[in-house]
User: What shape does this take?
Amino acid sequence: MAAAHFGQLSNTLFEELGARVKKKPQNVLVAPFSTELPAAIVFRSAPMPAEGIYPEHHHPWGEFVFAISGVVEVRFRGGHFLVPPQYGIWLPPNVTHLGQNRRAAWHSSIYVSAELCAVLPDNVSAIAVTPLIREMLEHLRQHPPGVAVTEQEKRFLKVLVDMLAAADRVGNYLPTSNDPVVQKVLGILEESPGDTRSLAELAAYVNTSERTLMRRCQSELGMTLAEWRQRMRVVKATPLLAEGRTVESIALEFGYGSSSAFITMFRRLTGETPDEYRKRCRNDKG
Assistant: This one.
C-alpha cells in the first residue's frame, strides 16, 4: 500500500499543543509505565474518556495502539495521526508524542521492548489491522496476561508482534498539510463534515482555481480531496456509531441524500457496514 504524505508539525506548534494540554487537567491521563516494562511485550486495554489526553511524553520501548471503538489520535514532532478502527498507530521507541481523544473510545496497546522493535517500522506509521490481528487483540482483551506472563502467553504476544510487522502500512490515514490553501480547505471540511461544496466551489472560496486546488491536494495529501473528505467522514462517524447514533442521523449530518449512499461509502473504506461496526463495538465492550 502506498504511503500517504502528511503535514509536519513544527517544534513550536508541538510545544503550543503541549501547553494547551496542561491547561486542561480534568481529563489528563497518566501513562501506565514510566521507566521500564514488566515484560518484553506487554498488552493493555482501557477506556479513553472524551477529551482525554496523555500529555507529551516518550519511552524507550515501542507502542502499537488500536481503537476497539472510536478513533486513535496522536500528535508528535513530525505529524498528526488520526485513524479509524481498521488501523492502529505504531510509535517507535523514544518518539515524543501526546495522545488525545475528543470523544470516548476504547483503546488496546501492545508495548514492545526496544530489542524486539527491529522488525517493526522505524518511523511513526499507521498499520492495517487484519481480521486475524483484530481477533488476537480481542483474545488478549478477554484473557489479559497476568503479572507473571506464561510461556504460552509470551509466544502468543511474539506472534502478534510478527503479524504487525508483516501487515500493510500507510504513512497516515488522514494526512494534514502546511500549505495554507489546503490547510484552510481541510479545516472547513473537518469543522463541518456535512459541507457538500464541490471542489470548484471550495477553490473559489479560498481564491484559487479548481485545477490548482486539485493539484495541491494531490501533492500535499497523496490523495484526492474527495478521498480525504470520505476518510474524514469515516473518522468522524465511528465514535458517533459507537455512542448509539442512528445511521440515518449521521448520514444526514454528513450531507448525504440517503443513508444508503453513506453506508456504501463506509463499507468501501472499512470493509463493514455502519451497523456491523456498531454491533462489533457492543460485542467487544461487552
Notes: The mean pLDDT is 88. The longest strand covers residues 41-48. The chain has two domains: 11-170, 180-221+223-285. The longest helix spans residues 225-242.
